[in-house]
Structures are given as C-alpha cells and as structure tokens.
Amino acid sequence: MATEFLNPGLDQATSDKIVSILQNRLAQEEEASLILKHAHWNVAGPSFIGVHEMLDPEVDAVRNMADETAERIATLGGSAQGTPESIIENRTWSRFTLMGRQNTQDYLKALIDYYADFITAERNAYKELDELDIISSNIMQDHVQELEHFNWFMNSHLICETPKA
Q1: pTM of the shown model
Q2: What is the SS3 assignment for the chain?
Q3: Which of 98, 105, 140, 147 has the CB geometry, 3.0–4.6 Å to 110, for a possible disulfide?
Q4: Pfam families annotated for this entry (predicted)?
C-alpha cells in the first residue's frame, strides 16, 4: 500500500504505517456515523425527542472526524477508503448489534458500550501516532476530546433516566 508521494521528513515505511492506522480509524468513524443515525431513527419512549435531537449533531461531528481523517490520509499521499467493504475489512472493534425500535435507555447503553471501544481505539491510535507523526496524533486527540464530550452527554442523560432504588 505505497503512498503516491512522500511528505518531507517521512519515509515510505512510516507513511504507510500512518496511513494504515488512519484508515482503521476512518473505517470506525464512518461506521459510527451510520450507527448514530440508525439510533436517531429508531429510539423510542418517553425520552424520545431529547435523545433523537441529541444524536444528529454527533452524527455531523463524527462525519467531520471521518472527513478530517480521510483528508489527512490524502495529505500523506494515501488513498482514503470510505466504502462499506472498507469498514468490514478494517474492523478491529466489536460490532454494534442493537437493531430496530428500542427504548432510549437501551440505545444509550449500547452506544455508551460502543463509544468505550471507539474512544479506546482512537486513544491507542494517537499514542501510536505520537512516535510516527505528531500532526496525525493531534488530529486523533481532538477526535477523542469530542467523543468523550458526547459520551458524557449520553451517560448524563442515562443517569437522569435511571430510577434510584
């Protein structure tokens, strides 16, 4: 998977490694935007409108992350793969399995679990990228900050919805 060109200060092996890490992150970012939209369409119950409206800005934020990751791949001379097949081929994380209309609590719990893996993978990427390319690492760090922010929203919403014993 040789890049089309090299950026100054990076050799072929390093560029290829960076692009590989970013491609994996791009695949999950693309998948996450689809999962969030799926949840947006299928949440139900008393908290429907709050959760429904909370999800769309995160869909946009994750799509923007994917765009930023794809453009970094291109900047490094790589070719960003954004197809459904590339999501499957690059999957190193657990699948999201909640389907159909479900109550908001079930969707939030499933999304929180998904985000735990998502945030961990983005963190691992920026740690690995720190040694290879600080620019790409900084991009991933910014993504983690946004993902953690939304994770806080979901957890806070769920805490308020959970009856105390």
Answers
A1: 0.93
A2: CCCCCCCCCCCHHHHHHHHHHHHHHHHHHHHHHHHHHHHHHHEECCCHHHHHHHHHHHHHHHHHHHHHHHHHHHHCCCCCCCCHHHHHHHCCCCCCCCCCCEEHHHHHHHHHHHHHHHHHHHHHHHHHHHHHCHHHHHHHHHHHHHHHHHHHHHHHHHHHHCCCC
A3: 98
A4: Ferritin (PF00210)
